[in-house]
Design brief:
- About 40% of the residues lie in helices and about 20% in strands.
- The chain is α/β, with parallel strands linked by helices.
- Helix 6 crosses helix 7 (about 265-275).
- The termini are far apart.
């Protein structure tokens, strides 16, 4: 038996050890140092990327948000009680993504793309990252195609175009969600895919929205992404990005999508919570310094693509809740400066029975007439001005009793316009019908009609045109314009109808 030499053994061991890298393990696995309140600090993972998906025990996943010298700060999607100190953590090497595809339509999902509606698994082929750099200016084209909301006041005065970002802002209980839901319902048969993102709301409220969409047949082309108030803050924070990702999938395949973020005030609050827990320095109102960037990188993803890229569009309707009408607070001013206009809903108007409670004075659409059909552009020009004048005169009229004839006429006209623009929830109106009734109002046919009868006048008139003069509606629908011939015809129909209607009014 040959003798084993100790120096040979040590040489072999030394050779084997020289090729052995201990650091390999440190890169891909780490240890939990601290966990709680939806965040965890992990030691190790020295090659981790920002925004990477991290795998914790018990099927909990997280995203690496803070990359510090000696540890990585992660936000957790799932119960932080399932993770404890000393647990082993693995890198996945994947940037946080979600499944996308047609299978998502008609479903209720969480921000990670998992179903919440009990209708079984969702089978999709494709994954897209939650965070994605917005496309540059060369890949876009101007907003020029209308996205009809079906709400007269909006389509006539604050038009929204495909690819636009229009903010819906107002105090709580002023009908912000109602405007958004009506817009979704109005997309029926218009080949627009809708995504409703519920952030930090009560479960019962989300269930109510789903019921309204289902009853009105809108769920077939919609997806609801829900992160309720009881979900962890990280879930609420990424919910909006999940909505943008799903919308981008439709946009990039040459189709049209509409995404509603309800609401971004709660998203900002959940991001503040996560940031403070990760010990990021607080700024104004304790929000982190990059809260503006949070919303700008989200909303910048909405766009109308150039024809070379298929001409698809993603329209965003973010919702912001103000406190006691304070539009000058931090988050509202941030989002106002990012979006292409805002629809401001006022509690006083809402309580006075003017619904939708839109304040025409400070609501704007920075896309303007580009997002309107020609017919609407022709008749709605005077509408906004007349309403603004009426609001101003109304305040003065309370003080004085002896008003001159012109003022009285302006007040009368304004009163009728306000009445015409009222609309019930879940009853969006076709744009052709909107054109007809606004034409009647701006041309003064309603001036002599008592305000209480305006609603009946509208219904009867639209019914008559539909039954006896369908060619007018068809012409507007096909050409998107109001020709001189149709204008003359409409004037005669209105004169005749108004005379007959007056005779039916009870004196």
């Amino acid at each position: 038996m040959a003798e084993v030499k100790s120096d040979e053994i040590s040489a072999i061991l030394r050779k084997q050890l020289s090729g052995f890298e201990t650091e390999v393990d440190v890169y891909d696995v780490g240890t939990v140092l601290y966990v709680g309140d939806g965040v965890a600090r992990v030691y190790g993972l020295s090659k981790c990327e920002a925004g990477e998906l991290i795998e914790f025990p018990n099927g909990v996943f997280g995203i690496a948000l803070n990359l510090e010298e000696d540890n990585v700060g992660c936000i957790l999607f799932g119960e932080s009680s399932l993770v404890k100190e000393g647990d082993m953590v693995k890198r996945t090497g994947k940037i946080a993504s979600m499944p996308v595809g047609e299978a998502m339509l008609g479903r209720v999902i969480n921000p990670l793309g998992q179903p919440l509606d009990g209708k079984g698994e969702i089978h999709t082929e494709k994954f897209l990252p939650l965070e994605r750099k917005a496309l540059g200016v060369i890949q876009r084209q101007p907003v020029k195609e209308p996205l009809q909301t079906g709400i007269k006041a909006i389509d006539a005065m604050i038009p929204i175009g495909r690819g636009q970002r229009e903010l819906i802002i107002g105090d709580r209980q002023t009908g912000k969600t109602a405007v958004a839901i009506d817009t979704i319902i109005n997309q029926k048969g218009k080949d627009v895919f809708c995504i409703y993102v519920a952030i930090g709301q009560k479960g019962s409220t989300v269930a109510q929205v789903i019921r309204s969409l289902t009853e009105n047949g809108a769920m077939d082309y919609s997806t609801v992404i829900s992160a309720t108030a009881s979900d962890p803050a990280p879930m609420q924070y990424i919910a909006a990005f999940a909505g943008a990702t799903l919308g981008e999938y439709f946009r990039d395949t040459g189709r049209h999508a509409l995404v509603i973020y309800d609401d971004l005030s709660k998203q900002a609050a959940s991001y503040r919570e996560v940031s403070l827990l990760l010990r990021r320095p607080p700024g104004r109102e304790a929000y982190p310094g990059d809260v503006f960037y949070l919303h700008s990188r989200l909303l910048e993803r909405a766009s109308k693509l150039s024809e070379d890229l298929g001409g698809g569009s993603l329209t965003a309707l973010p919702i912001i809740e103000t406190q006691a009408g304070d539009v000058a607070a931090y988050i509202p001013t941030n989002v106002i400066s990012i979006t292409d206009g805002q629809i401001y809903l006022e509690p006083n108007l809402f309580n006075a029975g003017i619904r939708p409670a839109i304040n025409v004075g400070i609501s704007v659409s920075r896309v303007g007439g580009n997002a309107q059909i020609k017919a609407m552009k022709k008749i709605a020009g005077t509408l906004r001005l007349e309403l603004a004048q009426f609001r101003e005169l109304e305040a003065f009229a309370k003080f004085g009793s002896d008003l001159d004839k012109t003022t009285m006429q302006q007040l009368r006209r304004g009163e009728k316009l306000v009445e015409v623009l009222k609309q019930k929830q879940y009853e969006p109106m076709k744009v052709e019908n909107q054109v007809l009734i606004i034409f009647a109002a701006t041309k003064g046919f309603l001036d002599e009609i008592p305000t209480s009868d305006v609603s009946r006048y509208q219904n009867d008139f639209l019914q008559e045109v539909e039954n006896l003069h369908p060619d007018i509606i068809q012409s507007i629908s096909e050409t998107k314009d109001l020709t001189q011939e149709n204008t003359d015809k409409l004037m005669n129909v209105l004169k005749d109808f108004t005379e007959r209607f007056k005779s039916t009014i009870k004196q």
